[in-house]
Write a structure and sequence with these properties.
The complex is a heterodimer of chains A (181) and B (61). Chain A has 181 residues and is mostly helical. Helix content of chain A is 81%, strand content 0%. Chain A is built from 7 helices and no strands. The mean pLDDT of chain A is 91. Chain B has a domain of 29 residues. Classes of the chains: A mainly alpha (181), B mainly alpha (61). Chains A and B meet through helix 1, helix 2, helix 3, helix 4 and helix 5 of A and helix 1 and helix 2 of B.
């Protein structure tokens, strides 16, 4: 299945917007995590940890799912394919794992938010959890930067499946020439 | 961000494939795969043993 050029451009634009938006939203989330970890003022703590689940559930999670979905459509709808080039496969692995970890780790964020809403100063007793949230954001940022780098540089490397597909697409005359000793 | 689709016959992958045998796995893929495996195992181990940074998060209010 090959997407028509207009639709391909639209899906590509959506994919880039979602992927880079995801990266930017995680950077914003990380700023909140730093503010929450460094501050001892109740107002700042409450603001930071109450904002986190909103950014997480209404910005980061939708963007991650949109990035994954549009990436699948974009690869399956063009000659790049999903399993033909290692860099596409690597991006798929990054995207799927990052989305799973994100969904799993939204739980501690929601927990911190509940504490912040009731007794923000008691967050001092949850230092490790606050560090985990910051570490998650930092790791996510690195992984998403890696995915962006892969998308721009497209390091070479055909998978065995991609190589077979490429052989199938060759003109018969060229294949015959290649098979000559 | 897979655009434009590969169409240039002088692409490096094509040059490698022209040798008549399937190309080997590039070094960067091996390094990437090793890092992913280590991270996944570490993640699973930390969560199964309850030793992640935040420890066990209580459910509900």
């Amino acid at each position: 299945m090959t997407l028509p050029p207009g639709l391909r451009k639209f899906v590509l634009t959506t994919h880039i917007t979602a992927s880079v938006g995801w990266l930017g939203a995680v950077a914003g989330f990380m700023a909140l995590a730093v503010a929450g970890l460094r501050s001892e003022e109740a107002d700042t703590l409450r603001a930071a940890y109450l904002t986190m689940p909103l950014v997480g559930w209404f910005v980061i999670v939708p963007l991650s799912l949109a990035s994954l979905l549009t990436g699948l459509v974009q690869s399956l709808g063009t000659s790049w394919g999903l399993f033909r080039h290692y860099w596409v496969l690597a991006k798929l692995v990054i995207n799927v794992l990052a989305t799973i970890v994100l969904l799993l780790h939204m739980q501690p964020v929601s927990h911190l938010s509940r504490i912040a809403a009731e007794t923000p100063l008691s967050l001092a007793g949850f230092g490790r959890l606050r560090v985990q949230v910051l570490a998650d954001a930092g790791l996510a940022l690195l992984v998403l930067l890696l995915a962006t780098t892969l998308a721009v540089y497209k390091p070479r490397g055909l998978t065995p499946h991609g190589w077979r597909k490429q052989q199938e697409r060759r003109p018969p005359a060229r294949q015959a020439a290649l098979s000559q000793p | 961000m897979a655009d434009p689709p590969p169409s240039n016959p002088s692409h490096d992958d094509t040059a490698v494939a022209d040798r008549g045998s399937a190309p080997g796995m590039p070094l960067w893929v091996k390094v990437f795969g090793a890092i992913v495996i280590v991270l996944v195992l570490l993640f699973v181990f930390l969560h199964l043993t309850g030793n992640s940074l935040g420890g066990v998060v209580p459910h509900g209010h």
